[in-house]
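Sample intake — Pyruvate kinase
Collected from: Selaginella moellendorffii
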Amino acid sequence: MSKIIGTLGPKSRAVETIEGMLKAGMTVARIDFSYGTPEYHQETMEFLKQAVRNTRTLCGVMMDTLGPELQIINKSETPIAIDVDAFVTLTPDQSKEASSKYLPINFQNLANVVKPKDTIFVGQYLFTGSESTSIWLEVNEVKGNEIVCRAKNAATLAGPLFTALASSVRIDLPTLSENDKKVIASWGKANRIDFLSLSYCRHAEDVKQARALLTSLELTKTQIFAKIENAEGLKHFDDILKEADGIILSRGNLGIDLPSEKVFLFQKAALYKCNMLGKPAVITRVVDTMTENPRPTRAEATDVANAVLDGSDAILLGAETYRGNFPIQCIGTAEIVYNQRFYFKKVLEYVGEPMGHLESIASAAVRSATKVGASMIIVFTSAGQAARHTLIAKYRPLMPVMVVVIPQISTNFMRFSFSGTFTARQCLIVRGLFPILADPQVSTSNAANELVLKMAIEHGKMAGCIKANDRVVVCQKIGDSSVVRIVDMAA
């Protein structure tokens, strides 16, 4: 029922590999602009499109911005060995080669915002936090615009790009950089992205600015997922959640800005808040060891299961699929027990009474499906009715929810436009929703609705979700009325 977001990169961009990831359960492909050129990512997109055609599988596309990320370029790509207690200088001088003595960083103002005893973490792009491949630096002194640090552990930094994080230090860079705006306006618009992952989101205003940019580019259907990565984002979490379409908890970065023992507390609180508002929540950093190993550790498997039980809609795989050796094997998760009755009651109490029209219909559909032991909920929706199926998912039914998206065709007498694919693909990030596209020629008549319902049931049977003597709960609009009904399958 949970969804998997896979980051496509050097180890996972071949058509055959993407096909394997789609078959294994990837529902959203993440394209990360922290690294690589637009041309490189466009080539990856073409591979993804081919894999989607070959597998006949829907897949959403998430574009991840760079934001105010501190980066160190290793032009020679020569591994850099740093010993414990060695002194390393962070410099804004980009002409210097990265070495065990100097690390050129892309933020000119860093020396003005750090102080002695501050901690700076440097690791591989999409780092795993391994003590042998990433380094903890303690600021020893600041000399002009350079920062002299002492290494707190021994490590070897490998690869062309390292990411730096200054713990509990505010980086005075815009959340949407000029380069971010440029690639969204060009690459993002050209590829009609389904989701924008707003990196290092710190304020609700960041989401508003991103929304205004998307609106100006006529990307009004693109959903914004605010990526919470530091203490500043946590401080303004409630306001950010109100503005965003969903939340991504970047646990790796949060684990540097916060004491480790506080990350899980925030995770539980954040997932609860997302669930009560019916907004998708995504967590990262789940099977780090699978970058090098074909199986997760028991602790990682338990962590994934607990995240699902806490209410996470989706799991985001970063380094595991981007540069890991087992991208297809990584596409997996664990769900064991879900107390739906308790969860349903908790959401009802949070919503309170009187309920809104759609909220009442959604909760009634899930209550009916639970009481009669339905094998599936089928909900009819269109491009303008996204709230109907997302509210059903909010109540976390035990059975899958088939979202029958009825596309709409419009014309200005010069050309035809087809809407509905956005709605279908954006279901692929919400727990329990499984979209199918209906025939766009279908009208809104009762006879046509019954025909589409029959086809949806047949699709459920072929997928193995509906069997003889099962019951199916259907939620649809008939005329001016919203109807919830129970359909008995023939023996």
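Post-analysis note: The CA atoms of residues 193 and 436 lie 19 Å apart.
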